[in-house]
Amino acid sequence: MRLIKRHIDDDGTGSVTLCPEEPEDMWHAYNLIRPRDLLTASAIRRVTTESASTGSTASQRVHTNLTIRVKSVDFDPQAGQLHVSGQIARENRYTKIGQFHTLDLELQRNFTLEKQVGGIDGGEGWDSVARAQLEEAIDPARGTEAVAVVMQEGLANICFITQHQTVLRQRIEVSVPRKRSGAGRSADHDKGLEKFFATVLDTLTRQIEGLMEGKDSSTNFPILLASPGFTAAGFLKYITETAASKGSKLLQDMVKRKAFVVIHSSSGHLHSLNEVLNSPEVLARLQNTKYARETALMDEFFALLRKDDGRAWYGPKEVETAVEKGAVGRGGGVLLISNSLFRSQDIATRRRWVRLVDRVREVEGGEVRVLSGDHESGKRLEGLGGIAAILTFPIEEMESDGEESNGSDNGSEAS
Amino acid sequence: MSNRRVKSLAADEDDYDDYDNYDDDYEDGGNEELSPEDKEQMRQGTTKVREAVGSAFPATDKEIHDALWHYYYDVGKTVAYLKNKQKPSTAPTKAKKDEPKSKLSTSFCSTALPGISRSDRGGQDGLQATIPQKDADGRQECISSTIYSTEFSAAEFFKDCPWLRIPEHRKAEILIEPVYPRLGLLGGASAGGKMSKLAALAAKRRQKESERSESTATGSSESQDDYTTRLNKLRLQEINRAKSNTSRDADTPMREGDKAVSDSGVSADILRQDLPDPLSHGQTTSTPDLSVSVEPCIRGRPSPFASIMTSHDADLFLPTSPDLLAVGENAKSFDFAEPSPDDVVMKAQNAKVAAPAKTKPKESARTKTTSLAHGVQQLSVQETPKVKSKNIDVLAEYKKVKRKKAANFVVIGHVDAGKSTLMGRLLFDLKAVDQRTMDKYRKEAERIGKGSFAFAWVLDQGTEERERGVTIDIATNKFETDRTSFTILDAPGHKDFVPNMIAGASQADFAVLVIDASMGNFESGLKGQTKEHALLVRSIGVQRIIVAVNKMDAVDWSEERFAEIRQQMSAFLTSAGFQSKNVTFVPCSGLEGGNILAKCSDPKASWYTGPTLVEELDQSEPSTYALDKPLRMTINDVFRGSVLNPLSVSGRIEAGNVQVGEQVVVMPSGEKAQIRSLEVDDEPQDWAVAGQNVVLNLTDIDPIHLKTGDVLCSAVSPIQNVSEFRAKVLAFEHLTPMNIDVHKGRLHVPGRISQLVGVLDKSTGMVVKKRPKIVQPGNVVRVVVQLDQPVPLEPPSRVVLRANGETVAAGLLEKNEMRP
Fold first, then answer.
1. Do B418 and B584 contact (CB within 8 A), yes or no?
2. Are residues B570 and B480 part of one domain?
3. Which family is annotated (chain A) (predicted)?
4. B308 and B250 both lie in a single domain
5. Which chain A residue's Cα is nearest to B805?
6. If you write DSSP's letter for every residue of A197-230 in order, what string do you get?
7. Where residue B765 sits, what CATH number does that domain have?
8. Is B509 within the bounds of a domain?
9. Is residue B59 situated within a structural domain?
10. What burial class does residue B208 get, using C-beta atoms within 10 Å of its C-beta: 0-12 exposed, 13-18 middle, 19+ buried?
11. Which of B463, B477, B703 lies closest to A181 in CB terms?
C-alpha cells in the first residue's frame, strides 16, 4: 500500500490517504478501518432527481467522492474485496448527511481514513496498535509469496501464503477408489488417482495464472506440494510428465526453474499447513518473513507449555495477571496476541488490549507479536483464546475460575 | 365393465366427481313415471309373460309388471320368478302389506342407537345388506336395503384412526344424529315415508330370501358357492380382458357380475351423493344435517366382489387355472348362506318363527367379515419401488442359518516388520493363493530386484505399493481354516498411513501385532508404530492381540531374544490396557514360513512347543453385534463394481441389518439410496447383518454424495450430523486447545479441541481438575471438539484424535451437542 498523505496529530487524531496496490492491501485496510472512523473514497451512486415543474423523476449514476462514518466492514479474503458500509457524513451536491452507502474499496484508487479522538462515542484515534498496523501496511518490502498444495489421496487444498494471511483458494475433492484384492482391480485406484492429479493440476494452473496476472513473468515463488506418503511426490511426477507432453508454457517454465517443492505433511487438511511452513525447505525460503517468526514463536510457546513449568500461559485473564506481575518483560517475555482481538466492535475491549500491548512494549520492555488470525499460527493462537504469553519467570498457580479462562471461542468474544 | 363402475366400488374420494353421472342414471331408472319406451316394453313383456305362464296363472298384472321392471323386461327370468313365487304362495300379499311398517320400525330401531353398537356389528350390517342384493340382481332392492343398513357407528367410521384409542374418560360426548330412513328414495317418495315401489319390491324379495334360507341350508350354501364361482370366473375374465373371445359359459356370469358391480356401485353412490345433496332428488323428507354422522358410507366397505376385483391391482397371486381354491377360500369369508341381521330382525317382527339356530351362523358370519376386513386392509396398494424388497425378516433368517465362525483381524506393527510378507505366506500355505500366482509374483519381484517382497505382493496389489515396497492402504483377503473363516486386514505400518490403519483396525475383531525380532529393529519399532498401533487398536476397542515375533530366522531362532521381546512387550501391552490372558506370543518367520501353518522345521527352533500362528488364530471367539439396532455402516470404499452395478460401496456393517430393496440414507449428505443388490464376502445375498463385510450396490443416488467415511444408515432412524461433540479421551500426548484430525474408521475430518472440560479420575470418572490449561499424557480428560464441517457421529463410538502425524488422544464419544 502506498502512502499518499499522512497527517496525524500527537493526540491521535488525523487522517491518512492510502492507495492499495495489491489484494493483500485490502486485508491491511480491513485491519485499519474500524467502526466510527471516517472513510472517504470514490463511489458510484445512483441519484434520483425530481423535476420541480412536472414531478417526473430521472435517475442517473454519478461518480463522486463520498465520506461515510463506518458502521461495518466486510472482508472477503478469497476475492480480496472490502466493503465498508456506513452513513454519509459530509454532504455534497448529490447526497445528504445520514444517507447510507456502502463503499467498495478498489485497487489503485486512493482512500482517506480519518480517526478522531473523543467525540460522541469516544474514539481512540490512531493508537499505538493502529499506528503499527499502518507502518506494516505501508512497508514496501514484500515478502515471498508461496503457493501451497496440501493434499492427500482424494483431497487437495490450494492456498496462497502471503506475509499476513493464508488464503484458501480452492478445495478439491475427488473420490479415489481404494485398492481391492483381485486381478486388475488396482487399476481402478490408479485411474482414480490420475483423475485426481489431473483435476488438481488444472485447478492449480488456473489459480497460478490468476496470481500471475499483471505481474512480471519472472516473478518467482515456490509452489509447495505437501502430503503424507507419496501423494505429493506422485503429483510432482505427474506434473513433470504432463509438462513434458502437453503442458503450457507457464507449467514448463515452472518445472524448469524447479518451482515445485515436495514437503511432508501428516494429512491433507488445511491445518497441516503448519507443518509445511515449519519444514526446513520452506523455512529456508521464508526465513525472514514475519510469518516464519510467528510460527517459530508459537512452537516455542507450545514447547514451553508442554514442559508445564509455569512459563507459558494462555487465556485473557491469565496473561493479564502475568503482565501485571511483570512476568512479560525484558529478557524473553513475549506477548502473543491475535489481531482479531483488535477488531472488536466494542471500544472498551479494544482499549483493554491496546493498553496491554502498550504496557508490555513500553513499560515492561517485552516483545509483542500481533499474529494474523488469517495465518495458521494465528489460528493456533485463536484456539487458545487469542492471547498467550511466554514469561520470564514461572508463575506456578494462577487461580482463575472465570468463564473466559479457557475461552471456548476465539478471543474476539472475550471481554 | 367400465372403469368408472369398478372405481366406484373402491369408494374412493375421487368418486364424488362422478356423482352427477349417477344422478342421471337414477333419474332415468327410478322415476315413477315410466317413459313411453318403457311403457311399450312393459306392455309387450306382460303379454309375453302371460303367454308363457298361461292364463290360469294366478298373477296380477301388477306383479308381472313389477317382475318385468325388475328383470329389465327379461321375459324368461320374469316367468321363472313368477312361477317360483307362486309355489310357496302362503301369503305373499299379506306379507307385503305388513312389511313397510315393520321395516320402518326396524330401521328406526337400529338407527336410534348410533355409536353404541360395536364396530364389528356396524360393519357387518353394511356388508350383509349389500351382498344379498347382488345375489338377487335387483337394482331397486339394493337401494332400499342399503338404506336400511345405514346404521351408523362412530367407532366403526373412525376404526383405523389413531385418535380412536383415546381413553374413555377423556372422550368428549359426541351426539350423533340418527340417520332417518328415507324410503322411496328413487320412487318419488312422499313425505309420509310411504313405501315406494322399489322398497316394496325389495321387501318382497327379502321375504322370499329369508324363507328360502330357512328352508334349505344346503341350497343356500350351494348358491353361495355358485356365486363365488361366478365371481371367480369373472375374475379370470378380468385377467384375460385382452382376449375378445370369451368363452360362452363364462359369458353369462360376466354379464351378471357386470350388473352386480353396477348395482352395488350404484347403491353405495346413491347414498353418498344423496346425503350431501338431498335436494337434487327432490326429497321432501327430513334429511339429516351434513354432519359427520350422516356420511357413514363414505368409507364404504368393499364388497366381496370389489375385493376380488381390486386384488388384481395389489399384485396378489391368483390362479388362472380352474384350480380356484385360493380364490374360493377368499370368497368364502362372505357367507351368503346367512341372512343379514336386518332379515333376522324382520323375521322376528313378522312373527315368522325364527329358528334359534340362526344365531350361530350369524356369529360365524361376523368373524368371517372381520377376517375380510383384515384381508382388505392388507390389500393396500403401495408405490412400486424399482428394486423390490423381499421384506425378509433378516434376524429370523440369520438365526436359521448355521454358519462357520467368522472373524476379522487386523495385522499391525512397525513399518517393515514383515506384516504383508507374513500374511502372504499364511495365504500361500493355506492354499488361498495358488502356486502359479506365487511364481508369477516371485518372478516379477525378482525382475525389479525385490525378490523378498514376493509374498507381500499377494496383499500389496497397488502399483505404487509394489514399486516402493510399502503397504499404503488396507488390503483385505480371506481364508478359511476348518473352524473359522477369516478376513485379513493388512494394515500399513508407515507412519503416514496410520489413518488407513485406523480404518482397518475399526473393522477388526482382534489384532495380530507383528514384531521384527532382529536386533535394533524391535527397539526402534517399539518407539514407533509398534507402540502407536498397539495403543490405537486398544482404544478402538480390540481386546485380544496375538504378537507374532517375526523374522526369527534372522536371529537364529534365539530363545533369549524371544523371551526378551516377550517380556518387554507384555509389560507394554499390559500398560496399554490389554489383559495378559488376551495376549499371546508366537515366534515365527514369514519369509521361511516357520510356525505359521506348520511347526518350524529348523532344529534351532525346537524349543518352542506352543501353538502355531494359525492355531492361535483359530482360538478366536466370535464377537457379537447389535443386529437389531438401526443400520450403521461406515463406507470404506466407493467404486464402480461392474457394468451392472455402476455404483458400489464396501464396508463392514457396524450395527443392524440390511437387505436388498431397502432404502438407506447416506450421511452427511442426507441423500437416499436404494440397495440394488448386495454381496457378503463376494457372494450375492439377499441380506446382511452387522459384523459382515459387504459390498452394497446402490441405485437412485448420485456418486457425488458418496465419500469414503460417510455413513450408510437406516432411513427410519438416521444418524445425526454433528459439528461439535464431547468426548472422554485418554491423552497420549499433551493436550491443549489445538487443531486435530478426528478419525473414526474411514472418517477423517479436521477439527479442533475447543475446550478441555476437565481431567477425570481414571477409576471413578469424577472430575479431578476443572478446565486444565494443559493435559499431561496418560490422563483421562473430557474435551469438547469442534469440527470444521458437520459429520455423522453418534455416541457411543470410539474416536481417535491425531495432530501433526501423531496420535494425541483416543476415546469415547459422550454426548452430541447439536449445533446447526
1. no
2. yes
3. Belongs to the eukaryotic release factor 1 family. Pelota subfamily.
4. yes
5. A266
6. HHHHHHHHHHHHHHHHTTS-TT----EEEEESTT
7. 2.40.30.10
8. yes
9. no
10. middle
11. B477
Nearest to A384 among B472, B475, B737 (CB): B737
Same domain as B256, residue B113: yes
Looking at the partner chain, which of A230, A271, A409 has a beta carbon nearest the beta carbon of B739? A271
Are B174 and B193 contained in the same domain? yes
Q: Is B434 on the interface with A (CB under 8 A)?
A: no
**Are B641 and B755 in the same domain?**
no
Residue B20 lies in a domain: yes
Q: Tell me, what CATH number does B418's domain have?
A: 3.40.50.300
Domain residue limits at B332: 3-33+88-378
| Cβ of residue B524 closer than 8 Å to a chain A Cβ | no
Q: Whole-angstrom Cα distance, residue B525 to residue B522?
A: 5
Å between A291 CA and nearest CA of chain B: 18
The cell numbers describing A287, all together, are: 526465513
Please, which pLDDT band fits residue B335 given cuts at 50, 70 and 90? low
More confident residue, B792 or B765: B792
Distance CA B606, CA B595 (A): 11
Find out whether A266 and A152 touch, Cβ atoms under 8 Å: no
Pairwise CA distance, residues A384 & B754, whole Å: 8
**Residue B753 in contact with partner chain A when CB distance is under 8 A:** yes
pLDDT at B279: 43
Whether B532 has its CB under 8 Å from any CB of chain A: the answer is no
For A189-226, write each residue's pLDDT tens digit: 888 888 999 999 989 888 888 777 766 666 677 888 88
Q: Is A394 near chain B, with CB under 8 Å?
A: no
Cα distance between residue B511 and residue B544, in whole Å: 6
Which residues of chain B are within 8 Å of residue A186 when distances are taken between CB atoms? Answer: 461-463
B474 inside 8 A of chain A by CB: yes
Q: Are residues A114 and A5 in contact, defined by beta-carbon separation less than 8 angstroms?
A: no
CB pairs under 8 A between A and B: 122
Residues B129, B213, single domain; the answer is: yes
Domains (range + CATH), chain A: 2-138 (2.30.30.870), 146-285 (3.30.420.60), 290-413 (3.30.1330.30)
Scanning A253-292 for CB atoms below 8 A from B yields 264-267, 269-272, 274-275
The structural domain count of chain B equals: 4
pLDDT of B612 over the 50 cut? yes
The ipTM, to two decimals, is 0.77
Give tens-digit pLDDT for A118-165: 766 666 778 888 888 888 888 765 655 778 899 988 889 988 887 777
Q: What is the pLDDT of residue A17?
A: 92
Q: B743: helix, coil or strand?
A: strand
Whether B334 and B228 map to the same domain: the answer is: yes
Q: Examine the domain organization and report whether B360 and B425 are in the same domain.
A: no
The answer to whether B739 contacts A267, with C-beta atoms less than 8 Å apart, is no
Instruction: Find where cell 461515510 sits.
Output: A68
Subunit contact B637:A177, Cβ cutoff 8 A: yes
DSSP letter string over B445-462?
HHHTT-GGGTTGGGT--S
User: Within the 153-172 window of chain A, which residues sit less than 8 Å (CB to CB) from chain B?
Assistant: 154
pTM above 0.80, yes or no: no
Is the CB of A186 less than 8 angstroms away from the CB of B463? Answer: yes
The 10s digit of each residue's pLDDT in B227-238 is 556 656 555 454
**CB-based contact B639 A179, cutoff 8 Å:** no
Smallest CA-to-CA distance from A205 within A197, A216, A193, A194 is with A197
Would you state the pLDDT for residue B311?
56
Q: Is residue B72 part of a domain?
A: no
